[in-house]
Amino acid sequence: MSPVARRLLAVHAVTGGRSGLWMYMLLDRTLQGVMQMEKVVLFAFNGELMCFVHVLLNALDMKEKGFEIKIVIEGAATGVIPEIARKGNPMHGLYSRAREKGLIDGACKACSNKMGVLKAIESEGIPLLGKMSGHPGMAEYIKQGYRVITF
To answer: Strands of 128-129's sheet, edge to edge?
Structure first.
């Protein structure tokens, strides 16, 4: 039995079957909570390919489970893009799936430049983010209701 059904039965039992308006109010409130989508942004900082692969895996998994998900590529992780974007890379398919689903929100402009991959990021069509002194700020995502997770 679903949590919603259990709650409705509990209300029905407590009110002796005279729940009326209260039942509808509870149902409406419960459904609003169920229908609100969890918003998560994954900030990838680590430049190890396998760590970045886990960012992609988690993003795809969350998307499949109904989360609103974004990936922001920061720091040394920007250096992974030219490698994983190569069609011969074994992890290219995973990266492509994340791109096709629109999960990559962008990459840090300052870090992409510092890592020497700015042109590669641009050629991939990944938006460059840099409203916070050349870097993407977490506050902007938090203000939009995202939970921030760093890798």
So the answer is: 128-129, 104-108, 68-73, 39-44, 147-150
CA distances from 37 to 16, 34, 105, 118, 145 (A): 34, 8, 18, 33, 10
Q: Are 112 and 3 in contact (CB under 8 A)?
A: no
* Domain 39-150 classification at class level: alpha beta
pTM: 0.77
User: In 18-117, where does DSSP find H-type helix?
Assistant: 20-35, 49-64, 81-84, 92-100, 109-114
Enumerate the domain spans of the chain. Answer: 3-35, 39-150
Kindly list the distances between the CA atom of residue 121 and the CA atoms of 74, 85, 139, in Å, as whole numbers in the listed order.
Answer: 12, 9, 23
Write the pLDDT tens digit of every residue in 39-84. Answer: 999 999 999 999 999 999 999 999 999 999 999 999 999 999 999 9
